[in-house]
Each structure stands twice: as structure tokens, then as C-alpha cells.
């Protein structure tokens, strides 16, 4: 007769830790004895699948380097003056914009919750299984600049391209140098048919072209960013002040 210890050893050898935990649970719970073989086997594999999904999400969250790893869509405040439509956010939460390689552009004054809204959408994307990466635009451009100096430019671009969703925070804060405009265009161009970007900016979208300066690149970049973009123009009070008063 095959013992449960033998099955546990096999599960360990196959690295089926979720399966193993579920089997131990079943062996100590008399309620499972009333289930059929197929039902018990289903629960064993379901536990294994769920554990693997949980581990993958943890890896994705770690790789994403979000500023706020606890950000979630249910924390967003839909105050009347915020110009934030819940139905639009829920539509974006489906992940369809990522499947369709579309972008999301979030603008508004300082403090209105642009970055938090972006990170909530980023966290939702991670929960859906999309590799996601957060960058402040200045940090992304610095990483690329350093990669040019140490000979890892191609490798760095390849690493960035593996993320299905890029979160680019604080676009338009400081003037861009010619090389930085080119580098930013390379990132955006690379994702035209293979990924999505969420950008936050205090600068209104109508001023982005002038901000970029290089008319040829600006035309190409804006065409790729805006053609199928979802635009959120946040208004209202500073959310930092609002939440501090609660």
C-alpha cells in the first residue's frame, strides 16, 4: 500500500508545494473523505495552480518597483470635482487597453493623485499577470544614459521591452536634452505594437509637442502616444491635503 509520506516525497521531488500542502490538509480534514477521487484531485491541483499564481504575482510586484505596493483601485476617491469617472477606471481595470497595446495619459496639477491612480492601474495589471515596470522619467533616462557609457545599451532596451506595461511618472518636469528625446522616442517606438505605457504629467497634453522641441521626433512620438490613448485629466483639490484631514 502506498503511504501518504511516499506521495509527499514525490510532490517534494516535483516541486509541487501547493499540491503537497493541500494533500496534508486533506489528510487532516475528515470532510474530504466524502468527496470523489476526481474532486479531491481537482482540489490538489487547484492549490498548486493558485500557489504558483501567487508566487508569480509576488515576483511581478517586486520587479515593478512601484512606489506604493499597496495601491489598489478600491482606494481611489471619486470626488465630484476630480473629473474622474469610475466607469472609465473600471474599464481600464479590465486590462483590455494592455491587450490592445493602448496607452493611458494622466494629467493634472500637483497633488491631484496622478501617480497614485497610475500605480493603482499598474498594480491591477500585475494582478492580471502583466509584467509591469515603474519609472520616474528622469530615472529611466539616467539608466539609459549610463547604459550607453558602460556598453549595455542594447541589453538595457531589451530588458525594458520585456515589460508589457511601462509606468512613466513625472513627464515634462525638466527640459530634455537631445539625446534624452531620442532615447524616450526609442522606448515609445518599441512599444507601438508590443506594449502599453501609462504617463503622468502636470503639463497639459496640448503642450507636450512644444516641450519636446524636436519637431520631427515630437510629431512621431505624439502620433504613437496619442493615437489610441485613454486620457484622464484630473482636477479638484490636492488629495494629500484631503486625505490628511480624514
Description:
- Strands 2-3-4-1-5 form a five-stranded parallel beta sheet.
- The chain is α/β, with parallel strands linked by helices and 246 residues long.
- It has twelve helices and five strands.
- This is Transposase-associated protein, IS21 family.
Sequence-ordered SSE layout with sheet pairings:
Elements: H1 4-13, H2 17-27, H3 37-64, H4 86-93, H5 96-99, E1 104-107, H6 114-127, E2 132-136, H7 137-150, H8 153-161, E3 165-171, H9 178-190, E4 196-201, H10 208-212, H11 215-226, E5 230-233, H12 239-244
Parallel strand pairs: 1-4, 1-5, 2-3, 3-4
Helix pairs in contact: 1-2, 2-3, 7-8, 9-11
Keywords: ATP-binding, Nucleotide-binding
Pfam family, one: IstB_IS21
Protein name: Transposase-associated protein, IS21 family
Provide tags for this entry.
single chain; 246 residues; alpha/beta; Rossmann fold; 2 domains; five-stranded parallel sheet; 12 helices; 5 strands; 54% helix; 11% strand; ATP-binding
Distance N to C terminus:
64 Å
| CATH C-level class of the largest domain | Alpha Beta
Number of helices: 12
Backbone shape:
elongated
Mean pLDDT: 89
Order of helices and strands: HHHHHEHEHHEHEHHEH
CATH superfamily of the largest domain: P-loop containing nucleotide triphosphate hydrolases
Structural class: alpha/beta
Which spans of ≥5 residues are poorly predicted at pLDDT below 50?
Answer: none
CATH fold-level label of the largest domain: Rossmann fold
What is the domain tally? 2
Helix content: 40-55%
Strand order of the largest sheet: 2-3-4-1-5
Q: Could you describe the largest sheet, including whether it forms a barrel?
A: 5 strands, parallel
Tell me the Rg in angstroms. 23 Å
**CATH hierarchy: architecture of the largest domain:** 3-Layer(aba) Sandwich
Amino acid at each position: 500500500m502506498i503511504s501518504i509520506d511516499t506521495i509527499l516525497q514525490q510532490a517534494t521531488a516535483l516541486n509541487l508545494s501547493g499540491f503537497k500542502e493541500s494533500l496534508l490538509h486533506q489528510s487532516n480534514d475528515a470532510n474530504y473523505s466524502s468527496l470523489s477521487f476526481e474532486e479531491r484531485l481537482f482540489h490538489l491541483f487547484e492549490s498548486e495552480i493558485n500557489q504558483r499564481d501567487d508566487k508569480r504575482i509576488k515576483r511581478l510586484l517586486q520587479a515593478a518597483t512601484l512606489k506604493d505596493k499597496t495601491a489598489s483601485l478600491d482606494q481611489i476617491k471619486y470626488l465630484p470635482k476630480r473629473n474622474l469617472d469610475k466607469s472609465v477606471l473600471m474599464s481600464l481595470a479590465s486590462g483590455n487597453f494592455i491587450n490592445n497595446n493602448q496607452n493611458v495619459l494622466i494629467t493634472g496639477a500637483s497633488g491631484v493623485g496622478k501617480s497614485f491612480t497610475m500605480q493603482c492601474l499598474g498594480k491591477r495589471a500585475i494582478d492580471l499577470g502583466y509584467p509591469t515596470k515603474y519609472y520616474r522619467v528622469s530615472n529611466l533616462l539616467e539608466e539609459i544614459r549610463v547604459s550607453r557609457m558602460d556598453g549595455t545599451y542594447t541589453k538595457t532596451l531589451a530588458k525594458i521591452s520585456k515589460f508589457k506595461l511601462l509606468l512613466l511618472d513625472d513627464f515634462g518636469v525638466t527640459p530634455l536634452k537631445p539625446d534624452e528625446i531620442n532615447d524616450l522616442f526609442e522606448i515609445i517606438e518599441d512599444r507601438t505594437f508590443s506594449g502599453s505605457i501609462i504617463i503622468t504629467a502636470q503639463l497639459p497634453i496640448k503642450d507636450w509637442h512644444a516641450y519636446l522641441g524636436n519637431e520631427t521626433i515630437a510629431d512621431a512620438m505624439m502620433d504613437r502616444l496619442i493615437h489610441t490613448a485613454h486620457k484622464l485629466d484630473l482636477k479638484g483639490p490636492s488629495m494629500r491635503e484631503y486625505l490628511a484631514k480624514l
